[in-house]
Amino acid sequence: MEQYKLGEMEQRFAEIIWDNEPVTSRTLTKLCEKEFGWKRTTTYTMLKRLCDREIFKNDGGMVIALMSKSEFKVAQGEKFISEIFHGSLPQFLAAFSRHKKLSKRDINEIQKLIDEYKEE
């Protein structure tokens, strides 16, 4: 799960890239200096970390996302369910609904997803 687990600053940094991509590494350092007060080296260190996790890519000074924000969140959810609930979505839903009452709207949306899946 480490690949899809971000600390608070990593998450904020990722948001800057997603919001501005494609972005030059030079522009990214300026954005991070303004937003976080970071030096250029700090920005490059953080970027390397997230590139090593294959979330972003720095290609000749142009930073692009290898995963969209939405894809990243899906991957986080899938990894969580896989590790904590042994890949069982029903176990996850059962645990979740024990602590949070599902609204009629939630139930209808889940049922719609199930129905669409059955049709495929």
From TrEMBL:
Organism: Candidatus Scybalomonas excrementavium
Pfam families in UniProt: Penicillinase_R
Protein family membership: Belongs to the BlaI transcriptional regulatory family.
UniProt keyword terms in alphabetical order: DNA-binding, Transcription, Transcription regulation
InterPro entries tied to this protein: BlaI_family (IPR005650), WH-like_DNA-bd_sf (IPR036388), WH_DNA-bd_sf (IPR036390)
Record bears the keyword Transcription: yes
GO MF entry, a single one: DNA binding
Superkingdom: Bacteria
GO biological process assignments: negative regulation of DNA-templated transcription
Name of the protein in question: BlaI/MecI/CopY family transcriptional regulator
